[in-house]
Description:
By secondary structure, this protein is an alpha/beta fold. 34% of the residues lie in helices and 15% in strands. The strands form two sheets. Strands 2-1-3-4 form a four-stranded parallel β-sheet. It has a four-stranded parallel β-sheet with strand order 6-5-7-8.
Amino acid sequence: MIVAGGYGNYGQDLGILMLDTTFPRIPGDIGNANSFPFPVRYKRVKGASPKRVVEEADPALLEPFITAARELEAEGVKAITTSCGFLALFQRELVAAVHVPLFSSSLLQIPLLYEIFGRGGKAGVLTARAAALTERHFEGCGVQGIPLAVAGMDDKPEFTRVFLDRSKPGTVPLLDVEKTEAELKAKAAALVAAEPEIRFIVLECTNMPPFKKAIQESSGRPVFDIISLAGFIHSGLLGS
């Protein structure tokens, strides 16, 4: 058997482009390596704050993300994802910049799931900030002509304080896990109560997967996220 070299290390098949944050990332969060049953490789994009990515959709961040994606590819990863579903805005530019599969957002699952669930009802979306999630984000993921029901955590104080970096400057970010779970359960329950046609829910935010089971229970709907998508992609990679 002959094995090709060329990299400094091996076995980290999935690369993850990270926002520039310091908040806690518990198991289940994409920023916690224990969330995966396989090794991953992280690359932080300096200056890519939640405010610039989520609320401002800052186009100046595209080049730094492309540079970081190319660095991950050069380091040997076989696929790349990101730590923020709002990077769906850059999906087409990012995937065109590298030669490995790149999935910027869990929202990319919506067309497939809609087909699987019989092209009926609505696709539910739980997002960090509904006010900032636009048609451009959905278009970047090929989500066109699919009925959507979107709910955001805009009005939930604990989630917003932690994951949109609203903690007091200079303090160590702290996460109240139980309070956050209660907020997500309430939001999911309210979403399906308002939109009973929802067949499934996709979690846009990569900080939500730790609470997936609670969201499933409170909504009574199947729930999909970036971790489930990453596992699906990784399972098909050559040599993984």
